[in-house]
Amino acid sequence: MADLDPPSGLALSELAEDLLQELQVHFQGLTETITFKMEEMGSRIDDLQNNVTDLMVEAGIQNTKSK
Q1: pLDDT 10s per residue in the chain (67 long)?
Q2: Contacts of 15 (CB under 8 A, 6+ apart)
Q3: Would you say the C-alpha torsion 59, 60, 66, 67 has a positive or negative sign?
Q4: Predicted pLDDT of residue 62
Q5: Cα atoms found within 13 Å of the Cα of residue 59, Cβ hemisphere only
Q6: Model-level pTM?
Q7: Which of 62, 33, 31 has the alpha carbon at shortest distance from 49?
Q8: What pLDDT does residue 64 have?
Q9: I need a labelling partner for 31 at 20 to 30 A (CA). Which of 8, 46, 56, 58 fits?
Q10: Cα angle, residue 19 at apex, residues 15 and 23 outer, rounded to 5°
């Protein structure tokens, strides 16, 4: 068997730095995706709430001043 030299401290440090940078990029992408999805969901909930309120007004269950 051939003798393999263990990686130097500098090589390990660079590898760890690269890995952390890659993880940070992926985490930022996920954060942006989640933020977008939450904003989209909030908008849909607002639309739904407005539609329910409009239906209640049409049905005479709620007056327009409580909006």
Answers
A1: 555 667 788 888 999 999 999 999 999 999 999 999 999 999 999 999 999 999 999 998 876 555 4
A2: 7
A3: positive
A4: 73
A5: 8
A6: 0.63
A7: 62
A8: 58
A9: 46
A10: 170
Alpha-carbon gap, residue 53 to 44, rounded angstroms: 14
Cα 29 to Cα 35: distance, rounded to the nearest angstrom = 10
The string of DSSP codes covering the chain is: ----PPPPHHHHHHHHHHHHHHHHHHHHHHHHHHHHHHHHHHHHHHHHHHHHHHHHHHTTSS-GGG-
pLDDT at position 5 is: 65
Q: Mention every residue, 6+ apart, whose C-beta is less than 8 A from residue 56.
A: 62
